[in-house]
Design goal:
four-stranded mixed sheet, alpha+beta, 6 strands
Length: about 150
């Protein structure tokens, strides 16, 4: 069912009222998602009508953790437009089918919720091919990335 005009991806968006430390976010994704779950280091391989997962010998985490910035002014409208645009872009099929984008320059929720105007936050946009996880499991994985007291 996965075709360029019908992408079977699950998308999850997390927003922060302040910019979290990039290294901490990268380490959390690596140690809590990628290392314990080998599917995030595997590519789908097709033999005839049969599909299976194979380790990616050239796996590079930097192909999946992308750091960027929302277009100014970085409000909710810009965030929604960016996410909408990304949802129609197919992930490269020569590597594991997931991506996490760390986007700085977000000013959407803080101002709207009555917080200090001008405070810069961030977003993390996860896109994962549905064969790797379902929506419930992706939610569990994303929630597992946070530190709890």
């Amino acid at each position: 069912m996965d075709r360029p005009d019908n992408l079977m991806y699950i998308t999850s968006l997390v927003w922060f009222s302040e910019i979290p430390d990039w290294d901490a976010v990268s380490e959390a994704i690596a140690s809590r998602m990628v290392e314990p779950h080998p599917v995030f280091r595997r590519v789908p391989v097709r033999e005839g009508r049969r599909w299976y997962w194979e380790d990616d010998p050239d796996f590079d985490l930097s192909h999946h953790l992308i750091r960027g910035r929302l277009p100014a002014p970085g409000g909710r409208a810009e965030a929604e437009a960016y996410v909408s645009e990304q949802m129609s872009i197919q992930l490269p099929d020569d590597r594991p089918l997931w991506r996490a984008e760390f986007l700085e320059g977000y000013h959407g929720h803080g101002h709207e919720a009555g917080r200090e105007a001008g405070r810069e936050g961030a977003l993390v946009l996860f896109r994962v091919q549905h064969a790797m996880v379902d929506g419930v499991r992706l939610t569990q994985l994303v929630l597992g990335l946070r530190d709890t007291p």
